[in-house]
């Protein structure tokens, strides 16, 4: 398992499974009730990507799978969405009630999934925990498992023009979320996505996010190819 993803998995375990106040807050923010605050724009993903029941969805770094379950509730996928996380203990916290998801332990850099098998991949607040090598491997793996015409939507905390503000944001994230190895700009992410041979790359105005109060960057990456059934559409 890549070291940066292993560190992120352990950090997520400590925060999510902790018994103190930080653990309680982390579990609330990572659950259904906290989704509007942490991932507010994700609530509109069914409309943004024109998600339909026949699409197969993969959420990487899914934690307990709250986002995948929400989308399954709205869309009613024919196949349960796959919620992938590096921590088996975190995945075990996923509720067993309907709608069900398919929890899978694994990392973005070594996806334990068949090629060309998903229509949509989500990377929510994940890539900042990766070093450059792991990020490059992850993008190539995502492209490998996407069907022709499939899309990957990713969003992450972004850098600011002030080095002082970036240092504060890094401290804040280390204290209240997870340490970020990198705060990458849209240009940096787009460059890596181009190197990973994505056919179409778009920077999105993906907002608003309410917590934590740190601006995000968001990109939509599309694999080349056509399919008979209509793929998810970029906004």
Description of the molecule:
The protein has 235 residues and is an alpha/beta fold. It is built from nine helices and seven strands, in the order ααααβαβαββαβααββ. It has helices at residues 3-16, 21-29, 35-38, 45-48, 66-75, 88-91, 132-145, 163-176, 186-195, and strands at 57-60, 82-85, 102-105, 118-124, 146-157, 200-203, 216-222. Strands 3-2-1-4-5-7-6 form a seven-stranded mixed β-sheet. Strand 2 (82-85), helix 6 and strand 3 (102-105) form a beta-alpha-beta unit. The longest helix has 14 residues, at 3-16. The N and C termini lie far apart (34 Å). 44% of the residues are buried. The model has no long low-confidence stretch (mean pLDDT 89).
**What form results from the Cα inertia axes?**
globular
- Order of helical and strand elements: HHHHEHEHEEHEHHEE
Helical proportion, percent range: 25-40%
Global structural class:
alpha/beta
Number of helices: 9
Uncertain stretches of 5 or more adjacent residues: none
Give the rounded overall mean pLDDT: 89
Reported for the largest beta sheet, the result is:
7 strands, mixed
Based on DSSP secondary structure assignment, what is the total number of beta strands?
7
Relative strand content? 15-25%
Please compute the radius of gyration using only Cα atoms: 16 Å
Oligomer: single chain
What is the topology, as strand order, of the major beta sheet?
A: 3-2-1-4-5-7-6
End-to-end C-alpha gap = 34 Å
């Amino acid at each position: 398992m890549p070291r940066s993803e292993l560190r992120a998995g352990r950090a997520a375990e400590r925060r999510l499974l902790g018994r103190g106040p930080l653990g309680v807050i982390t579990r609330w923010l990572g659950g259904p009730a906290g989704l509007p605050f942490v991932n507010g724009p994700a609530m509109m993903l069914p409309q943004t990507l024109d998600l339909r029941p026949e699409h197969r969805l993969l959420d990487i770094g899914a934690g307990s799978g709250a986002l995948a379950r929400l989308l399954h509730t709205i869309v009613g996928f024919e196949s349960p969405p796959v919620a992938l996380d590096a921590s088996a203990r975190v995945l075990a916290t996923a509720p067993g009630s309907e709608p069900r998801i398919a929890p899978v332990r694994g990392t973005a850099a070594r996806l334990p999934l068949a090629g060309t098998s998903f229509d949509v991949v989500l990377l929510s607040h994940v890539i900042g925990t990766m070093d450059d090598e792991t990020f490059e491997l992850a993008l190539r793996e995502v492209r490998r498992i996407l069907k022709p015409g499939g899309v990957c939507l990713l969003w992450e905390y972004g850098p600011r023009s002030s080095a002082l503000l970036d240092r504060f944001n890094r401290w804040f994230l280390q204290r209240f979320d997870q340490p970020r190895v990198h705060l990458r700009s849209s240009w940096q992410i787009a460059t890596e996505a181009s190197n990973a041979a994505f056919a179409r790359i778009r920077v999105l105005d993906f907002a608003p996010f309410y917590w934590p109060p740190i601006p995000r960057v968001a990109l939509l990456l599309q694999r080349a190819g056509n399919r008979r059934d209509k793929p998810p559409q970029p906004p």
